[in-house]
Amino acid sequence: MKTDRDAIALVKELDGLPLALSAAGAYLEHVTTSFSDYLRLYKASWLKLQRTSPQLSSYEDRSLYTTWQITFDRIEQRNAASAKLLKLWAYFGRQDVWFELLRHANSADYEWIRKLTEDELNFNEAVALLCSFGLVDADRSLQQQSGSGGYSVHSCVHSWTVFVLNKEWDEGLARLALTCVASEVPSTNEKDWWLLQRRLLQHATRQDLFIVDGKVDIDGLDWAFHNLGNLYSDQGKLAEAEKMYIRALQGKEEVLGPDHTSTLDTVNNLGILYKDQGKLAEAEKMYIRALQGYEEALGPDHTSTLDTVNNLGNLYADQGKLAGAEKMYIRALQGYEEALGPDHTSTLDTVNNLGNLYADQGKLAEAEKMYIRALQGKEEALGPDHTSTLDTVNNLGILYADQGKLAEAEKMYIRALQGKEEALGPDHTLTLNTVNNLGLLYADQGKLAEAEAMYSRALQGYEEALGPKHILTLIMIHNIGLLYADQGKLAEAEVMYAQALHGYEEALGPKHKFILEAVNDLGALYTKRVKLVEAGTMLTRALSGREEVHGVKHTSTLQTVNNLGYLYSKEGKLAEAEAMYSRALQGYEDALGPELVLYIPALNTMFNFGDLFSQTDRKDKAKVMYTRALSGYTTVQGPSSKWCSEIAGRLKALQLTPAETETQYTPTETGMPGTKSWLRRFLRNLRT
């Protein structure tokens, strides 16, 4: 009975708090002591805690923290390494600490951590004691996902380790934790790298807080900041990555010098980051500095040199300097094949990038060959679900969409999206890129509600991850403008186009391809809204820019040629309109061959040409154009799409007398469906 009364007194003292009761129960299970003795220890420890930690004033703090202090003292007696591990935990995130995370903790100042990590059995023994006393929990699900189980502490326990066990800041433990996290950051070529990076992210975020607050001596940690920059960059946290890279660069320049290869590594990665942020001029400066330094230090054929050559190719492609991009890619590809072999992942990355370039140049057959080579090689080298493999799957989807093979494109996008959601999470920017591409595809298929759902998801994700002025956010605003135009919401579309154009002009050079796309789309919209003077200004600007950037026969240039033809027809300049349509259609035929009938921009030109022939009373030619366009739209979008209905109505009208036409059929002023191939092309993943 006495034991029962003591037990009841203890429960009352702990006020029924589950965590305190759990800790007390675990202690009593593993220690031969009575309830009354535990209650005595509890009160004595609380008096000690009150003296050392006056901020612990609440009754809940008293119950929990005193219970854990009793338990901690017993753990320290049983295994000092267990107690020290719990103290170190304050400098990590509270969840998912595992053996491999600590294996790089070779500190001359901490003999205990070397012994703890020299053998996994030592680690298991130490953490098992913490688990047995109820302070730490094992997470078996992590072992199933990654092969290495993790351990977590409750948030209240973690707070106790921070404010009580570490009431005085331990600089050595903080550096130790930062070293552990930075040393574990994997390269993207490693198997399941994304799983490990996701596990590290919460611990890196905790280190970031210490660094920002100036609590860590940063001397000698430049390599760690570089690695954390890689982690943040790979995880789409670009602002955090920039801070880390700049810290690393400043330290390396001071300690190693501006031309040391380690310094150049950070310069190169800053170039990648600036490119991802849309800061193309800053990116080019970084790449050129890195390339010149590598060539001088390592030679023109070293793989580090070739990596930067490849990256410059990516940048030139984004800037619309396609000839320069091709020169860089071919140099990188030849160098990789000679140094690493034709099936190495670096070689395959450049093969993928050449596919992107050929697609940008309208060389769709050559692009497909490159993508298939890259995909087959990556599936064999990395596996079908690796994010690099999924990048190429996504790019094949883009190519199929550009070719009008929308069913094949949808299969590729869905495979890429499912893989990226599982590997990177639903809100990662690389996942959102494929979400956007699915939206573009649904718009091309006439599934406007599904397209809008995809766009809304992508826009919200980009705004949260990157901010309202980032290039990806602006592209989504542009996409929504295209969708509004397809829905006939022309005033709303104009607002979106203008907002996107203003953002592009602030962020990019005056002849950047994104600016030219927005100018082209605004010109087409002004034509639909019968603002013909404004339309002419915009379309002339777009055509001049595209001819200079892409060339006179590029498919993007031909789209503006078509739009000018549509404007001329509105202005009654029918001869000029016919010349534009002829130029556009001939250009598409030269670029695409038999695939012409599956390419929506070419079908748009046929549709417009049919209208022109009908307007000039050349019914036979009108029927030919309408029939070709109808066949293509039916294949690509299905027979029930509104464009098929429009052409069917026009074909029917050609069979009627003028009086019958006036009473039975009036063509709607819908304008042509826009093409989004340039948007898909931008969202290719050019990562190395």
Quick gist of this model?
By secondary structure, the chain is mainly alpha-helical. It is built from 35 helices and two strands.
Explain what you see.
- This protein has 688 residues and is mostly helical.
- Among the domains are: 2-78, no CATH class; 81-257, no CATH class.
- 75% of the residues lie in helices and 1% in strands.
- The chain contains 35 helices and two strands.
- A two-stranded antiparallel sheet has the order 1-2.
- Helix 12 crosses helix 13 (222-234) and helix 27 (513-528) runs antiparallel to helix 28 (532-549).
- The longest helix is centred in the N-terminal third of the chain and has 20 residues, at 59-78.
- It starts with a helix and ends in a 6-residue tail after the last helix.
Q: What is the straight-line distance between the termini?
A: 72 Å
Spatial strand arrangement across the major sheet: 1-2
Mean pLDDT: 83
- Note the overall shape: elongated
- Uncertain residue segments: 49-54, 56-60, 658-678, 684-688
Number of strands: 2
How many strands, what sense, and barrel or not for the largest sheet? 2 strands, antiparallel
Helix percent reads: over 70%
Query: In angstroms, what is the radius of gyration?
Result: 32 Å
- Strand portion: under 5%
Helix-strand makeup class? mainly alpha
